[in-house]
Model the fold of this input.
Amino acid sequence: MKKAIFTLPLVACMVFFTACKSEKKNDTTAKEAATATEITAEAVKYKINADQSTIDWKGSKPTGTHTGTIAIESGVITTKGGVIESGNFLIDMNSITVTDLKSGEGKEDLEAHLKGTVEGKEDHFFNVAEHPTAYFEITGNEVKNGITTLSGNLTIKGIKKNVSFPVSHTEQGSNITLTSESFTIDRTQWNVNYGSKSVFDNLGDKFVNDEIELVITVKGSKA
Done:
């Protein structure tokens, strides 16, 4: 049985959510975690450049959307024969930033709510005090009709799930750039449940969508 919530504060409208269903791309179904791929001796190893790597997010509610970024702190990517072989990166959850609001106009309130730095609302979303980082590790890839689909374990709030999404990458000289297409994940699969109609009853139009739309950009240099 779903839990019941009868009132939600205004800040509940400012949350981590995605565009409406007709606009979503590459919906991802979270699966059980898989074994990460290993680095082979023949692989070319790139160290991720944190200052050039980021995750863009978009979320929605019935009356609008919000956008923002999350920083990638560190990591590596390896390739073999021009194909992504393995890799991982650490995500700094304290770096959650809202980009569609200005300072003093709700930006700080939304960022604090998402991070869980508001007293009494620590676990509404990401609770960065207890879970300061998230983590992604590559478990495989598939090339079909010229499109590369990357699979990996995404760990958020200590919960590890396997997701897949389309990517492209280029290797030029000593540098690599890997970029995902826009894809969505269901936040409730990682126990990010606040304001979810799939978890709580009696929300009316005071709900936030379960899906988060993401675009990952990772740049690195040969180690």
Summary: The mean pLDDT is 88. The domain at 3-222 is CATH 2.40.128.110 (Lipocalin).
